[in-house]
């Protein structure tokens, strides 16, 4: 059984396909969704989405947002969603190094919060990128 999954950011529709399963990060941990899931509205946290469609798996890095499950549709509204093939390893490493430098220099306030957010995002994006590289070499 399958259902329609749509992932939407303020800038674009990042994903829209019929899928068999999706796993999302919530404030209470990860939730797996299959067809005929009970209706649900939940808060999502920054993290990784895993999508299963047939024998294929896709991974996206997301910012926080919301998920609504209704009937045969799952709608995910998030601040950002990035596919593995949209990531640039050199840019991620540069952002991570810069964030670590800011934190090491004891940044404070908004500068520290920004550096921590960039570091979290960089670590997540590298995880997604590694999954893609692993899948291409296996």
UniProtKB/TrEMBL annotation:
* Cross-referenced Gene3D superfamilies: F0F1 ATP synthase delta/epsilon subunit, N-terminal (2.60.15.10)
Query: Which superkingdom?
Result: Bacteria
Q: Which InterPro entries match?
A: ATP_synth_F1_dsu/esu (IPR001469), ATP_synth_F1_dsu/esu_N (IPR020546), ATPsynth_dsu/esu_N (IPR036771)
Q: Where in the cell is the protein located?
A: Cell membrane; Endomembrane system
Arranged from A to Z, the UniProt key words for this protein are:
ATP synthesis, Cell membrane, CF(1), Hydrogen ion transport, Ion transport, Membrane, Transport
NAD as UniProt keyword: no
Where mainly found?
Answer: membrane
Regarding the membrane, this protein is recorded as: Peripheral membrane protein
- Which residues belong to the signal peptide in this entry? none
**Keyword Cell membrane in record:** yes
Pfam families, per the entry: ATP-synt_DE_N
Which residue range or ranges hold the ATP synthase F1 complex delta/epsilon subunit N-terminal domain? 5-81
Give GO terms: molecular function aspect only: ATP binding; proton-transporting ATP synthase activity, rotational mechanism
**CDD domains per record:** F1-ATPase_delta
* Gene Ontology CC terms: endomembrane system; plasma membrane; proton-transporting ATP synthase complex
* Xref: SUPFAM superfamilies: Epsilon subunit of F1F0-ATP synthase N-terminal domain (SSF51344)
HAMAP family tied to this protein? ATP_synth_epsil_bac (MF_00530)
PANTHER family xrefs: ATP SYNTHASE DELTA/EPSILON CHAIN (PTHR13822), ATP SYNTHASE EPSILON CHAIN, CHLOROPLASTIC (PTHR13822:SF10)
General function of this protein:
Produces ATP from ADP in the presence of a proton gradient across the membrane.
Q: What's the subunit arrangement here?
A: F-type ATPases have 2 components, CF(1) - the catalytic core - and CF(0) - the membrane proton channel. CF(1) has five subunits: alpha(3), beta(3), gamma(1), delta(1), epsilon(1). CF(0) has three main subunits: a, b and c.
Q: Which family does it belong to?
A: Belongs to the ATPase epsilon chain family.
> What protein name applies here?
ATP synthase epsilon chain
Its source organism is: Candidatus Gottesmanbacteria bacterium RIFCSPHIGHO2_01_FULL_46_14
Q: What's the encoding gene here?
A: atpC
